[in-house]
Amino acid sequence: MKDKPTVLYDVPGPRARRRNVLWSVLFLIGLAAVVWWVAASLADKNQLAWAKWAPFFTDARVWETYILPALKNTVIAAALSMVIALPLGAFLGILRLSDHIVVRSVAGSVVEFFRAIPVLILMLFADAAYSEFTDISPDNRPLYAVVTGLVLYNASVLAEVVRAGILALPTGQTDAAKAIGMRKGQIMTHVLLPQAVTAMLPALVSQLVVIVKDTALGGAMLGFSELLASVRPMSANYGANTIACFTVVAVIFIALNFALTTFASRLERRLRRGKKTTGAVVGVEAVEELAAPGEHPDTRRGPSG
Amino acid sequence: MFDFLQGYDLLGAFWVTVQLTVYSAIGSLVWGTLLAAMRVSPVPLMRGFGTAYVNIVRNIPLTVIIVFTSLGLFQTLGVSLGAERFTTINFRLAVLGLTAYTSAFVCEALRSGINTVPLGQVEAARAIGLSFPQVLRLIVLPQAFRSVVAPLANVLIALTKNTTVAATIGVAEAALLMREMIENEAQLLLISAIFAVGFLCLTLPTGLLLGWVAKKVAVKR
């Protein structure tokens, strides 16, 4: 970004560079003031004491008893949700591209409905429904409820991703398949889907970030013992080190999600560069748009044209 | 059939949801615009700060942020944001958390809006002798604002849904009332349907209206 011209300003000359240095210094002073204030208020409540942070570095039991099992639950819930939501979403997405208006509109309503409702509402419903209508043991129920809520929401988002992936392919693919006499189902399973899956890989990975983040809801509301839920017992056992616990949990989440995000954008760049594919990509940026309810201008093209 | 609704302040709960949305939307629009300004500024240090903020905040679950405002900020550090009553404190903390989280997404939406303006537009503007403020006022910002309506609408809808997370620190909004009602009444399907419809009424019109506006003002390229 350094000396590339941007829309907003020219490549800085000597005077602009001096001004930039001045701004940098002012900004640094402001930032230092904020950091100092935060550190002072932490120290004031005795949260910076080494005893509060030491367990995470010197005591393996913190990791063995609290963090790693909790992280395992987070990962299990996220992975399960993705694995179940993906085929469901692909199915819904294909139905949305059907030639029959009834099928199309029913699938469309389902997708619109679940995208417009908060995940937490879906989780609360699933939790209560499992306790009322099934005999899943109360120990397992939080996991079931979290996964169900996430699957319902993410299947509808992934349906849009799949649809966008299929629509992003050049129409020549469908035309060529028709020309050699393939049927509609064959075109979908043999030509469009395999290419669409490649095209939407970046979007899938970045949706995984959303799923990982939403598992924390289960910890806070349903008693699912994931990473966030481990903060309370940890800080109770290690001398009220709430700030330290939150920092460690946040850092783990950031590291995990940052790795996923970086992987997704690498994948996207690779696909866009690639010579073997059609170059069709449902990118990381598109996911946010596809996750919101409503028609999306870029994806309104019909199934065959 | 709807007798059990008596004794529950359904409208009041959804009103709190709306209030959370509006206050956080205003807050994150302000802070998000500042962040976006930093992210596109010529000063490398500010750019670095903006990028770091967005990358960190976007990768933390909102739930962690909201629970932290209560357990960390309020109960450990004693930050009460000038409020005395418990409900007011939690409401303000929730708005703070939602604002901190949503502004990262506002920042990205605004930045992508600025990035949609082709470089040639600015080069042409400079070529006919417009000064920098003129370029910004007449060429860049009008085009950037127009392309930003749709992504900002998506952020607003996501924010509306995210306000339910405030239930984790006991703000009396829709999701918390839903949990309470499910525990007390044997009307699971009906209760869930009511809350689902409530959220549909909040999110769908927002999406339709702003989607229409976005299409109306979009720059055809």
From TrEMBL, chain A:
Q: How does it sit in the membrane?
A: Multi-pass membrane protein
Output the GO biological process annotations, alphabetical, semicolon-separated: amino acid transport
ABC transmembrane type-1 domain mapped to chain residues: 71-264
GO CC term, one of those recorded: ATP-binding cassette (ABC) transporter complex
TM region(s), chain numbering: 21-39, 75-95, 107-130, 150-170, 191-212, 238-263
| A Pfam short name | BPD_transp_1
Ligase: present as a keyword of the record? no
Q: Which InterPro entries match?
A: AA_ABC_transptr_permease_3TM, ArtM/GltK/GlnP/TcyL/YhdX-like, MetI-like, MetI-like_sf
Q: Which UniProt keywords apply?
A: Cell membrane, Membrane, Transmembrane, Transmembrane helix, Transport
Localization per Swiss-Prot or TrEMBL? Cell membrane
Source superkingdom: Bacteria
Q: Does the keyword Cell membrane apply?
A: yes
Q: Which GO terms describe its molecular function?
A: transmembrane transporter activity
| Entry-linked PANTHER family | AMINO ACID ABC TRANSPORTER PERMEASE, MEMBRANE COMPONENT OF AMINO ACID ABC TRANSPORTER
Q: Which family does it belong to?
A: Belongs to the binding-protein-dependent transport system permease family.
Entry protein name: Glutamate transport system permease protein
Automatic annotation (TrEMBL), chain B:
The domain of life is Bacteria
Instruction: Kindly list the residue ranges recorded as spanning the membrane.
Output: 12-38, 59-83, 89-110, 188-214
Q: Which Pfam families match?
A: BPD_transp_1 (PF00528)
Q: Which GO terms describe its molecular function?
A: transmembrane transporter activity
Q: Where in the cell is it found?
A: Cell membrane
- Which CDD domains does the UniProt record give? TM_PBP2
Identify the residues that the record assigns to the ABC transmembrane type-1 domain, covering every copy: 14-210
Q: Which GO terms describe its biological process?
A: amino acid transport
Q: Where does it primarily localize? A: membrane
Query: Which Gene Ontology cellular-component terms appear in the entry?
Result: ATP-binding cassette (ABC) transporter complex
Keywords associated with the record? Amino-acid transport, Cell membrane, Membrane, Transmembrane, Transmembrane helix, Transport
Q: How does it sit in the membrane?
A: Multi-pass membrane protein
Identify its protein family. Answer: Belongs to the binding-protein-dependent transport system permease family. HisMQ subfamily.
Tell me what this protein is called: Glutamate transport system permease protein
